[in-house]
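hi! just following up on the protien thing from before. the input was this:
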Amino acid sequence: MKKIICLLVVLISGCTSSFDLTKKDIEDKGFYVDTGYYRIDFNGHEIIKIPPGAHIVQGTKDQAVGAIGVNDKIGLFVVKGDISLNDVVLLPQVNGYDYVERFTVGDPDGNPLPLVRYLLTNECDGKTYEGLSNKHGETVAFSTEKPCELSISFPDSIN
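and the predicted 3d structure came back as:
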């Protein structure tokens, strides 16, 4: 009887996954930059609990943005469903806003190019961020307060 009750409780409550994250988890995804913020996407798995200093991205139920805290701690997330960290998109983000864009740098054949120096520019206010593409050719996510066009350029040197 106890087994049946336990099974019913599990079926009624559903499955959840939890992740206690740090900056190292971002680095493990191939990013080695310190932007001070992160963006996480649980790919369709609704967020049930977020850590202090984070917020759910407007218009979504599965994405959050927050500041990386003391001792490089991000904090505990709980989401609906069974999902592994390999299925989660976790990346560094410039600023802590909801509107975001990022780029993948590639060669003419579409292969990703790592360690390419780039400059991202917010066309609304002229603010910039310089960086190097990660091992997958990806830039950081650049966020803005309102929808803005972002551009990417590849200067030979950035002063």
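Confidence is low (pLDDT under 50) at residues 5-12.
The chain has two helices and twelve strands.
cheers
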